[in-house]
Amino acid sequence: MDVLVVGATRGSGLAITRELVAAGHRVTAFGRTASTAFAAPVPGPGSLRPVDGDALDPEAVAKAVAGQDAVVVTLGISDNPLTVQWLRRSSTAPDVRSRGTANVVRAMRETGARRLVVQSTYGLGDSWAHLDLTWKLVFRFVIGRQFTDSGRQEAVVRASGLDWTLVRPVSLTDDAVTGEPAHVTTDDTRRGLKVSRAQLAQVHAASLADPAAVGATLSVSA
Q1: Contacts of 155 by beta carbon, 8 Å cutoff, 6+ apart
Q2: How far is CA 39 from the centre of its chain?
Q3: Helices vs strands, H then E, count in the chain
Q4: Measured between alpha carbons, how far is 163 from 14 in angstroms, rounded to an integer?
Q5: Residues 6+ positions from 5 with CB-CB distance below 8 Å
Q6: 122: DSSP letter
Q7: What pTM did the predictor assign?
Q8: How far apart are alpha carbons 114 and 9 in whole angstroms?
Q9: Per-residue pLDDT tens over the stretch 119-175
């Protein structure tokens, strides 16, 4: 499958890109520093093509989407969340999730690509009820701006008319894969409040070809 990963150079996007190549897909890794991030080969039977570009640039996104079978979106802000929340400063636009995803949706409609998997945030929608008080305070007062934009992003996805899947992970870690798969539900429940990016990447890769995942919101924990 030809798969575009938007936001491929850091965190979850990097893990997902590696997982997709390992699974044999032909991956286009899109990000502002993609050529640098993927200067070294990524192991696996698939292939990787890095493309430098900004998700907020509609033309760059459209070029990257052309010819793809599926798109995975993992946009976010890597700056200190307190700086973003209270000082209103970040190296990335605070609405990068919603605006970047809107650019992807527009390009997919124009090119005819259908399959869209978008990483969101656990705590949105009815999953809010399954957070403890500490995490509710974190979402409100530490990452509130980003959390709000994730909500706008989900609205863009649900209204897209595409074959979409929303993936809502709990707090992410860089722990290595232990062989235990992530706990995935469609009813907003969770197991723990942490999951590794490696486990999350497996969920993204598996959902691409899973018809049951179309139109579903997956809560991912461990």
Answers
A1: 98
A2: 22
A3: 8, 10
A4: 23
A5: 13, 16, 17, 20, 27, 28, 29, 30, 71, 72, 74
A6: B
A7: 0.94
A8: 23
A9: 999 999 999 999 999 999 998 898 888 999 999 999 999 999 999 999 999 999 999
End-to-end CA distance of the chain: 28
Q: Which two tokens stand for residue 27?
A: 């991956």
**Domain residue spans in the chain?**
2-221
Ramachandran category for residue 172: left, alpha or beta (phi over 0 → left; psi -120 to 50 → alpha): beta
Residue 80: partners with Cβ closer than 8 Å, 6 or more residues away: none
Helices (H), the chain: 11-22, 34-37, 58-65, 81-86, 96-111, 133-141, 144-158, 197-208
- The verdict on domain 2-221 having CATH code 3.40.50.720 is yes
